[in-house]
């Protein structure tokens, strides 16, 4: 039988052991931030993606250009709210810079992150206020999913918009009926 004792000892089969490692966290971060930090350390982010922590507003072009490579993220300053900059290499929004804010709840990974698009965009799965409709942050959410998977899901929506469950009815109808006008409107938003 194994049990943890508040004093730092472990009780195993009627014997108390004092482990060489600390049983207490070495940081003040809550569990959601520890998980987030671990995700970024282990997996990182795709090359088409940049992240800016500790911000809730859209970034200007100079700030985006100066964002570091995702392999050099400052994980000591990780926060539960950050901006993700995506630059798809294919699809309607090829080489466009699109920004999303991701808010990670304290209950993460048991509750999904909230995602909002900060860029002006006409998209079947993004409403006029920027709310994003993607199944993996709604009914398909599981604690085993990660922020990297959410970001890849966002990229997938940009490459292949889905009309099966539209969040923006006007954009969905226009995308289906007049793709050239749909593309023209999106070009005018940049």
From TrEMBL:
The active site is at residue 133. The keyword DNA damage does not apply. The keyword Electron transport does not apply. SMART domains: UBCc (SM00212). Belongs to the ubiquitin-conjugating enzyme family. The lineage of its organism: Eukaryota, Sar, Alveolata, Apicomplexa, Conoidasida. Residues 31-190 form the UBC core domain. Keywords: ATP-binding, Nucleotide-binding, Transferase, Ubl conjugation pathway. Signal peptide: none annotated. SUPFAM superfamilies: UBC-like (SSF54495). GO terms for molecular function: ATP binding; transferase activity. This is Ubiquitin-conjugating enzyme e2. Pfam families: UQ_con. InterPro entries: Ub_conjugating_enzyme, UBC, UBQ-conjugating_AS, UBQ-conjugating_enzyme/RWD. It comes from Cryptosporidium parvum (strain Iowa II).
């Amino acid at each position: 039988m194994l049990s943890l004792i508040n004093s730092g000892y472990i009780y195993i089969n009627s014997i108390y052991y004092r482990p060489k490692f600390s049983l207490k966290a070495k940081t003040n971060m809550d569990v959601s931030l520890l998980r987030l930090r671990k995700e970024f350390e282990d997996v990182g982010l795709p090359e088409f993606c940049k992240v800016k922590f500790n911000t809730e507003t859209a970034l200007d072009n100079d700030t985006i250009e100066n964002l570091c490579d995702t392999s050099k993220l400052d994980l000591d300053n990780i926060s539960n709210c950050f901006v993700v900059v995506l630059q798809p290499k294919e699809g309607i929004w090829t080489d466009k810079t699109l920004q999303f804010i991701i808010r990670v709840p304290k209950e993460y990974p048991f509750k999904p992150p909230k995602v909002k698009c900060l860029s002006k965009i006409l998209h079947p799965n993004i409403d006029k206020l920027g709310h994003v409709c993607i199944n993996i942050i709604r009914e398909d959410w599981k604690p085993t999913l990660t922020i990297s998977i959410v970001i890849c899901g966002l990229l997938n929506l940009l490459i292949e918009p889905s009309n099966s469950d539209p969040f923006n009815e006007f954009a969905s109808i226009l995308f289906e009926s007049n793709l050239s006008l749909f593309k023209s409107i999106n070009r005018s938003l940049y």
